[in-house]
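Hi R.,

Here are the chain sequences for the assembly we discussed:
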Amino acid sequence: MKNEKKKILFGEFVTGAALTRALEMGPEAVVTEVKASNLRGRGGAGFPTGLKWELTAKQESDEKFVICNADEGEPGTFKDRLLLMEQPEKVLEGMAIAGVAIGAKQGFIYLRGEYVYLKKELEEAISSMEDRGFLGSRINGGDFSFSVEIRLGAGAYVCGEEFALISSMNGYRGEPRNKPPYPSEAGYRDKPTVVNNVETLCYIPYIVTKGAQWFKEHGTRASTGTKLFSVSGDVKHPGVYELELGITVNQLLAEVGGEGAKSVQVGGASGLNVAEKDFDQPICFEGLPPGGSIIVFGHQRDMLHVLKNFMEFFVEESCGQCTPCREGNYRLLEGVRMLEKGECSVRYLKELEALCDVMKDSSKCGLGQTSPNAFLSIVENFKTEILYR
Amino acid sequence: MTAGIRAATDELQDVLRKFGKNRTDLLPILVEINRYFGHIDSNSIIEVSRYTGVPIGEIHGVITFYSFLGQKKRGRFVIRLCRTISCDMAGKDQIVRVLEKELGICFGETTDDGMFSLEYTNCIGMCNNPPAMLINDKAYGGLTPERVVEILDSFKLSEYQDMFGYGGVE
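And here is the predicted structure of the full complex:
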């Protein structure tokens, strides 16, 4: 952690205290508290966590599952790697509390294949918590049991999408599918399942012990709490920063030593490119996408080169299942190559922009719905730089 | 030759025995075979199909979906260089040249002695310390030409010796 002000996630933490408190409160009170905190998913999509839990808790089933989504693949994010390395017990405790809330006995960490080196330490953290009675059977001597297993991914960005992740864990190709049914109804092995991001789960112990009201003192009205930002690119101090939601791009740049930037990619490749004129915009659910990835571009950077890198990424990572995403991203990349050669007319660029709208409307999952963002925003911000070169 | 195949099959059975036979065990099984043997050959696919009851075609479909699983034999050490934007801006292209020159192969190829494969990969979450690469299970950040050569040498020296009992380097 680079910033001195340790706000929430890197503050004081005693393993087991929040779980004990959650068991005293009971499932309904835990769900109510998390709902009241307005905590929204920190993986990028921002679905309200409490609502997700409530929907899953309501389902009647002999088995339910908690999955920690550690398939952190968005270009420019590495905050979950840091949490899993430095605070595995907090993640695990968050999972156990989710188990209390929805009535699950089994949790999984879906760890991306690129992070396989974290597996051993995570397994050690699991067994250490089992030894101390915070995981395993009859936690705190009561009736609640909860165990955690690690499942490895194998190099597929799309598996960070909730249902692609579940398909992958179910032993199929990691392809998203149409919803409903949502994972809260039919997830892992077709049982009700909650899928939460690593960072989301880390806020849970604090909300349980300190209360929703305390949590809401951070951030804005619609975006409560803090957020981890993974900062990279042309900055003096790259790293992970915990900052209040609602922070402006300018404030963030000042914090990380990125003043004088040409533009900032907020929310990763699937987020938005923000040019200097918009640096006063806030990063939060009602503003710029708070996915957590901040890539800073200095004035020496060729934005068309940046865009090409993003489009190559999406062409490679599209699962290819639905046409708008498979063909759309390919056409956008082709357009970038034409722009490179100075062969793309203004008229054709307009057609590509229309294609972006089609992709946003008709793609099956978040990948195809958000991949045009980079194209649209970079073209909008730097039209004169990239046309007819 | 026959003995070799049987030995490989025995090893494969040992790997399989560690897992359950449900559909949900398929990915963990494939990940483990890929890790253990370096790739998943057609014999393994048949055995996995027998073990789990999942049709061969579907197993093939799952393997081809994931970039870390492969049916082609890769080198003992798979080098995956990140090509996503933060690493790209931090001098990835130079690292490409170092790796290709030092190993004498292009990206997508494996050295003749079967030791190293060169591949690109997308963001590996090392953006705060770019450019970065994975070698098998380990991540290396802050790469410079000198550091890359040092890393490669350390593999050549120690791992060659460990594996084959070489007394020295060629």
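The CA atoms of residues 332 and 352 of chain A lie 7 Å apart. The two ends of chain A are 42 Å apart (CA to CA).

Let me know if anything looks off.

Best,
T.
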